[in-house]
Amino acid sequence: MPQKTKSPLSSQNVFTSSLFGFRTAWRSSAALTTCSLGLLVVVSLLPGLQVVLIARLVDSVSTGDSGALTTGMIGVALCVAATEPLAQAVRALGYQIVSRARADLHGDLAHAVAAMPPSMLRRPETVDRVQSVKDAISMQTGYLYLNVLLALQGIIGAIGVCLAVFTFNVLSGLLVLLAALPVYLASSYLNRVQDRMDAPLAALSRRAGYLETLITHQRSATELNSLGTGQRVAAWTAAQYHTVADFESRLLRPLLKAQILAGVVTGALIAAALLVLVTEQATAGAAAGVVAAVAGAGAIRSAGFSLGSLAEASPRVGRHLQLLEDAPEPAPQSEAPAVHKIEAVDLRFSYDEVSPPALDGVSLSARRGEMVALVGPNGAGKTTAVNCLIGALDPSSGGVFINGQNAAQLEEAERLAVFGALSQEFGRFELRVRDAVGLGQPARALSDDDLADALTKAQAADVVAAMKSGLDTQLGDQWEGGVGISGGQWQRMALARIYARNAPVWILDEPTSAIDAEAEYEVFARLHRTRADRITIVVSHRAWTLQAMDRIYVLDNGSIVESGTFDELVAAGGRFTALFRSQMATSTSD
Ligand SMILES: Nc1ncnc2c1ncn2[C@@H]1O[C@H](COP(=O)(O)OP(=O)(O)OP(=O)(O)O)[C@@H](O)[C@H]1O
User: Fold this and answer.
1) Does this UniProt record's set of keywords contain Transmembrane (predicted)?
2) ipTM computed for the complex
3) Residue 523, CB-side half-sphere exposure with 13 Å CA sphere
4) Which helix (H) or strand (E) holds 201?
5) Residues 230 and 348 occupy one common structural domain
6) Residue 527 maps to a domain
7) Burial level of 489, CB count in 10 A (0-12/13-18/19+)?
């Protein structure tokens, strides 16, 4: 992944976030965006036009020109009548555009995350950043164009009013123009405050969101309510959201102060402009000045509010752009090479500086056709070793060699294509059966025959045969028409994905932990029967599954303490025997 030296965050401001809002709107619909801008210009010029017409109207009253009076009255009436409906039309178009733009932004985020390598996804800061960008799409970045429209309406309206006032009195026009400055300064100040608080706020919100997910998602909520502790998690959720609210209110205080101050200064400048007009101008100018002051204040307030929202969103725009930039380009699918040997040499890895190393010089190897096992007590380092093999973790020293080549030198996609890895926490993808299994194969869509073959090999064909819609059955009973399946059946679906993938190196971390004894026997028997064309590495806690392994590596405290075949290890009477003594005693007594 490319390392970035300069964060675009530092350069985000109202202008760049407006540009981002405009670009997303244009991408979602160029026609609607053009339409909204056209209407916007018309509606924004109405206040200025109103000022000019009122000045003429007052003039015609004093000169007694009845024709001009009638025209002026009709003009003012039309302006007043048209303003609100046109403004509403701009807003309605704006909403339509932002809902499309949000869909695009959610899509962009999903694609960016999909392009991230597992090693990047494992980092907590990546998860925080993704969550923050996702939240912002629903709250700020997704609505930017609406604020751009409102800000433009306010700014064009204020400029129109200023120009109208300039025609009566230059000083007064300048004062109206100056009235926009406090609002802009307040926006910039808020932008800086927001930027400082955004990262800690995202972390707090993610925790609140996580707790809420626990108590609102079907599976976890059912488990918690069965335990009778759902209310406790609900209370934690509420408390965490209150923590978020307290944190946010620290932002609201400076926001309020800055906006009140800006409002007071704006009001004073508008009042001064009005005073100049009333004291220096004839009746028409003064009357127009009153209208201008009201219209100008309204336009500037609206522009200020929208500019404030744009300023508030700008750090989020920065994070959004940075995340998309940091995500690598989606790599073209790589054909898996034939692998005749995989080796791990002296792997060392620590999760942090204080804990003892999770891997302390682990070396192992496997050749095509071999089936090897990693065993050891909980916390020995088996999953860490597996993650280093597939590249989800980078060892601090040592390396993984595929066909003798250092795997760190391979392209990410090339390396991932080598492995079919089934983790302990395999995914329960609540999709149609064909999609849930088909996700194993990125290179092509699988035919029904391919899917049936993978399901059969994973002992899952009977499960699907019993479903009314077969391969088209929706998995998961939280969905309308969806089917709930057992834990072991979910694991068989996950194993079917690995058969569908058919990679040259299979890494199966306790692949049968939830599967019944009969099916487990079948699964292992088939793995042995079909092992010739691949390398199979299995993590297992069950003694009998280890008997036919070509080699067993015994891990303890991050080091390999023994290796050999089952019989050799039993004969040695060492750590392996101690680890599996109770299981071997049971099988002997059976
Ligand atoms: N994400 C993590 N952050 C910090 N420490 C971790 C993390 N994951 C694992 N560890 C620690 O690293 C060591 C090795 O863990 P690992 O998950 O590799 O063990 P394992 O042999 O797979 O255990 P099990 O049989 O329970 O699956 C343990 O001490 C564990 O507490």
Assistant:
1) yes
2) 0.97
3) 30
4) helix 180-216
5) no
6) yes
7) buried
Give the residue ranges of DSSP H helices in 429-574: 433-438, 448-457, 461-465, 487-501, 517-529, 566-572
What residues make up the domain containing 140? 10-326
Q: Do 480 and 526 fall within a single domain?
A: yes
Whether the pLDDT of residue 446 is over 80: the answer is yes
My answer on whether 117 and 256 are in the same domain is yes
Q: Which atom of ligand 1 is nearest to the CA of 555?
A: 21
Measured in Å, residue 381 CA sits from the centre of ligand 1 at 6
Q: Are residues 319 and 345 in the same domain?
A: no
Nearest to 342 by CA among 396, 418, 397: 418
Q: What is the CATH number of the domain that holds 106?
A: 1.20.1560.10
Inform me whether the pLDDT recorded for 588 exceeds 60: no
Residue of 193, 194, 102 lying closest to 139 (CA atoms): 102
490 by Cβ neighbours in 10 Å (0-12 / 13-18 / 19+) ranks as: buried
**Whether pLDDT at 111 is above 60:** yes
In a domain, residue 5? The reply is no
Whether 1 maps to a domain, the answer reads no
Q: Are residues 84 and 145 in the same domain?
A: yes
Neighbours of 96 (CB within 10 A): 15
Q: Which of 146-150, 412-416, 543-547, 560-564 has the highest mean pLDDT?
A: 560-564
In a domain, 334, yes or no: no
Sign of the Cα pseudo-torsion (49, 51, 56, 60, in order): positive
- Among 9, 15, 10, which residue's Cα sits nearest to residue 311? 15
**C-alpha pair distances (Å), 205 with each of 128, 131, 134, 253:** 9, 9, 11, 19
Do 374 and 310 fall into the same domain?
no
Name the token pair of 534. 């691949």
Q: Which atom of ligand 1 is nearest to the CA of 541?
A: 25
Across the range 541-566, mean pLDDT stands at: 91
- Note the pLDDT of residue 106: 93
Ligand 1 is surrounded, with C-beta below 6 A, by 351, 358, 376, 378-384, 424
pLDDT of 490-539, one tens digit each? 999 999 999 999 899 999 998 887 788 887 888 888 888 888 989 999 99
The answer on 499 and 399 residing in a single domain is: yes
Taking the CB of residue 359, how many other CB atoms lie within 10 A of it?
A: 28
Q: What are φ and ψ of residue 327, in 5° steps?
A: -70, 130
pLDDT of residue 504: 95
- Write phi, then psi, for 200 (nearest 5 degrees): -60, -35
Nearest to 196 by CA among 412, 418, 388, 10: 10
Residue from 126, 349, 384, 540 to probe ligand 1 pocket by mutation (most atoms less than 8 Å from CB): 384
Instruction: Give the span between the Cα atoms of 419 and 535, in whole angstroms.
Output: 10
Q: Which residue has the CA at smallest separation from atom 1 of ligand 1?
A: 351
Are 159 and 184 contained in the same domain?
A: yes
Domain count, the chain: 2
Q: What's the pLDDT at 293? A: 64
